[in-house]
Amino acid sequence: MTEECLSVLEPIMDDPDALTTLMTFLLDAKGNMDDCSKLLFVHKNTVKYRIKKICELIGYDVTINSESYDVYTACMVYRLIHN
Known about the structure:
It contains five helices and no strands. By secondary structure, the protein is an all-alpha fold. It is globular.
């Protein structure tokens, strides 16, 4: 069941920056680009670019709440397992 949940993140599992950005964006910044950029100490445009690329890779638009539920759940599970 855990593997099925985490399968959403499979396309970015080898990219630590993408994983960190996605988890910070969804879990810590609650979907706010400005807050995410401050938490990651990067420019807001960097976050926008990374989120756009992540969305293309995983096939979900994480900026839309109804589409991001599975990704949000996967991020929570991943963080619980790896922290």
